[in-house]
């Protein structure tokens, strides 16, 4: 990434030699990203991250469909990230009128106790007017993987007009997206979930799917996303995706074993601890536990003091933690949802850190309960 912040600083859209060097880097990165995602280079739209990729997928599809007139519908799982849920809800409220979205019905489809989408409910939610279905590859909080092949079969049979989008932001480091998202028209990824830079991402727009732009201006990315390219970020995204693909099998096994070690230790040493979803249903990086009777905010403060960086549900603007919409959708009661903590492991996590963390967590939970 470094040369693109210094000697090759030119705008990739320019017409001079410096610009050509920057553009070459963007196009080489596009080829790498495309081949690792099972797409063609022309299918890749670089964005400023996962949030923008999700917005482009959602609003770009709705705006393209709304051009044909008539009421339209969209569906998603209840456990989607806010970057999918909120633009859908905003469009349904008519706030996205600027994008041309008229009457829109949004169905938020139920999930099982493990967080897996209910395929029968999905089928019932779809119809001739459905233009978009968005189901994430893996959930960011609990880590639950969704059965995208089965989702695609339901969508193709019940909603022939629909574009299928998957938010693969959380899954990209651990799941081969080229095969497992082959049935999707749109796929969002984000570099920082792969160890790449923050503020870089991409949306795969698989032919013959068409989206309308959300950002208008210079017409970059074949008119699909205007704005000067973040060349360094794009190079970082491609490099991180390549590195993750190379080490994926080994890292899945290594990180999964560390996650199991953490979960097993805490389930054995801390009474009234529950795992939110079975391990074979979630990403190897995710350890999502509930410590009955313990307030997650207090626990996070204690863990932070002990050097353990964990997280809970999403924080609202006031800083207070709301009970997670993901856990509520899984049928967890709001009180219990407030006792949940998510531990996320990654390529830097070591066995020493796991053992240290397990000790800090056990002591903190014990302290809070007493
Ligand atoms: N989607 C999921 C599932 C995520 O986990 C995140 C970030 O945590 C996003 C979207 C947003 O991505 P970004 O932070 O790159 O905007």
Structure write-up:
The protein has 370 residues and is α/β, with parallel strands linked by helices. It folds into 2 domains: 2-243, Aspartate Aminotransferase, domain 2, CATH 3.40.640.10; 248-369, Aspartate Aminotransferase, domain 1 (Alpha-Beta Complex). 40% of the residues lie in helices and 14% in strands. The chain has 11 helices and 10 strands. It has a 7-stranded mixed beta sheet, sandwiched between helices. A 3-stranded antiparallel beta sheet has the order 8-9-10. Helix 3 (82-92) links the parallel strand 2 and strand 3 (104-109). Helix 1 (17-36) packs parallel to helix 7 and helix 7 crosses helix 11. The longest helix has 39 residues, at 231-269. It is globular, with a radius of gyration of 21 Å. The protein starts with 16 loop residues before the first helix and ends with a helix. Pyridoxal-5'-phosphate binds at residues 49-51, 54, 81, 83, 136, 140, 167, 169-170, 190, 192, 201.
Give the count of helical stretches. 11
Sequence stretches where pLDDT stays below 50 over 5 or more residues: none
The average pLDDT value, as a whole number, equals 94
Task: Please report the first level of CATH classification, the CATH class of the largest domain.
Answer: Alpha Beta
Residue share in helices? 25-40%
Task: Give the percentage of residues in beta strands.
Answer: 5-15%
**Structural class, from helix and strand content?**
alpha/beta
Read across the widest sheet, the strand sequence of neighbours is: 1-7-6-5-4-2-3
């Amino acid at each position: 990434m470094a040369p693109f912040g210094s000697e090759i600083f030119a705008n990739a859209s320019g017409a001079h030699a410096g610009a050509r060097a920057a553009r070459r880097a963007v196009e080489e990165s596009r080829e790498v990203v495309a081949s690792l995602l099972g797409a063609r280079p022309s299918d890749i739209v670089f964005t400023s991250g996962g949030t923008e990729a999700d917005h482009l997928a959602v609003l770009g599809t709705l705006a393209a469909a709304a051009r044909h007139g008539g009421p339209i519908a969209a569906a998603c799982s209840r456990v989607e990230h806010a970057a999918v849920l909120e633009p859908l809800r905003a469009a349904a409220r008519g706030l996205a009128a600027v994008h041309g979205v008229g009457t829109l019905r949004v169905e938020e489809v139920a999930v099982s106790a493990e967080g897996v989408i209910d395929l029968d409910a999905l089928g019932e939610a779809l119809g001739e007017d459905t233009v978009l279905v968005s189901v994430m590859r893996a959930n960011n909080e609990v880590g639950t993987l969704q059965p995208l092949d089965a989702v695609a079969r339901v969508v193709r049979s019940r909603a022939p007009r629909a574009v299928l989008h998957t938010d693969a932001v959380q899954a990209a480091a651990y799941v081969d997206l080229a095969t497992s998202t082959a049935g999707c028209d749109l796929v969002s990824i984000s570099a920082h979930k792969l160890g790449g830079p923050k503020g870089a991402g991409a949306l795969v727009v698989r032919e013959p799917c068409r989206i309308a732009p959300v950002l208008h201006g210079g017409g970059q990315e074949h008119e699909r996303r205007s704005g000067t390219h973040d060349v360094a970020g794009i190079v970082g995204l491609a490099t991180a995706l390549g590195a993750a693909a190379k080490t994926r099998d080994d890292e899945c096994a290594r990180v999964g074993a560390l996650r199991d070690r953490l979960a097993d230790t805490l389930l054995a040493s801390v009474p009234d601890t529950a795992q939110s979803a079975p391990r074979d249903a979630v990403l190897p990086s995710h350890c999502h536990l509930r410590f009955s009777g313990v307030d997650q905010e207090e626990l996070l403060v204690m863990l932070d003091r002990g050097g353990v960086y964990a997280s809970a549900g999403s924080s609202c603007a006031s800083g207070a933690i709301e009970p997670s919409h993901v856990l509520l959708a899984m049928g967890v009661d709001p009180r219990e949802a407030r006792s949940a903590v998510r531990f996320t492991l990654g390529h830097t996590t070591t066995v020493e850190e796991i053992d240290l963390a397990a000790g800090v967590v056990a002591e903190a939970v014990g302290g809070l309960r007493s």
